[in-house]
């Protein structure tokens, strides 16, 4: 009976008191830039800066050359206009009537025996 009495005994479970677990602080890993990455970043920045300076220099030299070309072209137009004006003036001054007037004013006379015909241009 004693065995049966033990069997019928209800076991009262004692609540297990859990000891509070110490909170584990999660360490936030800071993403640090390594030395190699720093070198790469700096090298990239230097390359970009050098390329931009080179491009700006080339652009300025191209612009300067363009300005010089435009100046020379305007001078060429001006000189060609002067040449046209001078050709017109030569044509006006080399007319037969004008030459005869100047010759008479200087006291020359026309001797047709001494006149030679030169083919004109």
Automatic annotation (TrEMBL):
It is a single-pass type II membrane protein. Residues 62-89 form a coiled coil. One of its GO terms (biological process) is FtsZ-dependent cytokinesis. Pfam families: DivIC. The chain crosses the membrane at residues 39-57. It is found in: Cell membrane. Its main location: membrane. The keyword Metal-binding does not apply. The keyword rRNA-binding does not apply. Belongs to the FtsL family. This is Cell division protein FtsL. It comes from Ureibacillus manganicus DSM 26584.
């Amino acid at each position: 009976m004693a065995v049966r009495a033990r069997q019928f005994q209800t076991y009262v479970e004692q609540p297990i008191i859990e000891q509070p677990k110490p909170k584990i602080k999660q360490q936030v890993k800071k993403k640090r830039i390594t030395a190699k990455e720093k070198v790469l970043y700096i090298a990239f920045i230097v390359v970009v800066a050098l390329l931009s300076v080179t491009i700006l220099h080339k652009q300025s030299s191209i612009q300067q050359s363009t300005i010089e070309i435009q100046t020379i072209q305007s001078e060429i137009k001006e000189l060609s206009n002067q040449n046209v004006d001078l050709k017109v003036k030569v044509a006006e001054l080399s007319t037969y009537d004008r030459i005869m007037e100047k010759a008479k004013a200087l006291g020359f006379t026309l001797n047709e025996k001494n006149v030679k015909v030169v083919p004109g241009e």
